[in-house]
Amino acid sequence: MTQPETAASALLAALADGGVDYLFANAGTDFPPLIEALARLGKSAPRTLTIPHESVAVGMAHGAYLVSGRAQGVMVHVNVGLANCMMGLINARSDDVPMLVMSGRTPLTETGRKGTRMTPIQYGQEMYDQSGLVRELVKFDYELRYPEQAEPLVHRALALARSAPPGPVYLSLPKEPLSEPLPEGAAIRPPAPAATAIAPDSHALDTVLQMLRGAENPAIVCQRGDPAGHLGPLVSRLAERVGAAVYEPFSIRNLLPAPDPALQGYTPPRPDHDVLLVLDSQTPWIEQTSAPDPSAQVIHIAPDPHFSRLPVRGFRCDVALSADPVQAVEALLAGIDVSAAAKSRFESGSRSSLAAQAAQRNLAPESGPMSAEWLSHCVGRIMDEQAVAFSELGLLPAYLDLKAQNRHFSNAHSGGLGWAFPAALGAQLMQPDHLTIACMGDGSYMFANPVACHQVAEALGLPILTIVKNNGLWNAVRRSVVGGYPDGAAAQMNAMPLTDLAPLPDFTAIARASRGHAERVETGADLPAALDRAIRVIREERRPALLDCRVAVSDIH
Predict the structure, then answer these.
(1) Is 202-359 in the same CATH topology as 7-179?
(2) Topology of the domain covering 7-179
(3) Is 171 helix (H, G, I), strand (E, B) or coil?
(4) What is the dihedral of CA 419, 424, 427, 429, to 10 degrees?
(5) Which residue of 24, 36, 307, 432 is 20 to 30 Å from 385, comparing CA positions?
């Protein structure tokens, strides 16, 4: 049977019609109408996957979008499941990642209706405003009231999720209306499209063009590209045409490949630039330490150039152009020609950039605990043209020799830990033939609910490479303390309070519990061979692999 009969079946069919490939689900007692509908609908519903922790489900939806540009669905159990989604929703909202998150709601009634309350927990899980748990983290939230609303609500939620700037949306699904049959004659509507991309205002565009034409030392700042990969090549062309240096500070999704002559690195721009074109960058620099010269002109271009969801954001801004970055850069390219001065400036800057990159890659094997630079360099050597890496306090993009846009994904600036592992699983699901790497600190690995992640990797046949950057402590916390109190008592201690993670569990044993290949790598010299063995297992046996790498403590990263 493929024709929807109940609200639950209409909801599932609407998800499929709306382009949702996967429903990452963590079921509870509110799921019977959905499970029955799945059994009846068959292939008319999205592929529904059992994910044994909600944070893993949201992280997988996040990673799936980054490599495909397709919004996915998440379904969890009432308020308790929704609470476990919040870390992932914080990250998705910060990273403008669309997804439809749904949770059941404990039955509203005590007697007289299909789906009415039958267990004690259905009293304990009731809330006055369950949607309030996530309202600040989503673009849209609503609760299903009547069965005929299921299909149009899904279509509306997905359209809003995908419209710029994209982001997560939420539906609350009480059990009674979810269980009810559709009324006779209920209309079936086509999915609603996302709103069209925001085109740049012509007057503001002329102002930007005048600034770029008059610039003596322009720079382009960007932190993330689009999932389709259109923005990176356009930025490269624009940089060459106006003689601009390109910086990717605090990168979330890389834009330019490492050999691109425009790329100056992953730090904030130097203070000597007179015009800065900031593309869709939430945090282009740190005001306290790397603000541009007061005389510089600053242009921000993004669908929401002021990032209105952020309470405090005071970066310099002379032009705020609301526009899709791809359309805006295309319009700038159409309106500006290369000059002799720009060509000379670009060629001079590209030589210094390539020299700096060559120096960074001139590394040698290390006999003791490896540096993050060496770890990143070795991982970069195993990444082919299609490989992608998800990094959470793990890899340094300057040492990866990235081949193209969207090959290195970092956790969003919201900093919700435990993101990289499940995001890599979601990416592998969408691109099963590509090498997918998750590299994270030891603390981030534990935050990722690794038992659940390894179970998913085995159950779904997702042979990703997981690398744990193991230094035995919360180094980000330690560095923050040392930076704030360099001569303080805590900085002089061998074991700083609230940073030491010893004794750590055996991470390799956790991976082997789900039949994964696992090794502990004690020295930098041992890493290349360990990576080769892991890649062989992934490619020949289609099994996941984990390397627990002993990494030296750094005061830089």
Answers:
(1) yes
(2) Rossmann fold (3.40.50)
(3) strand
(4) -120
(5) 24
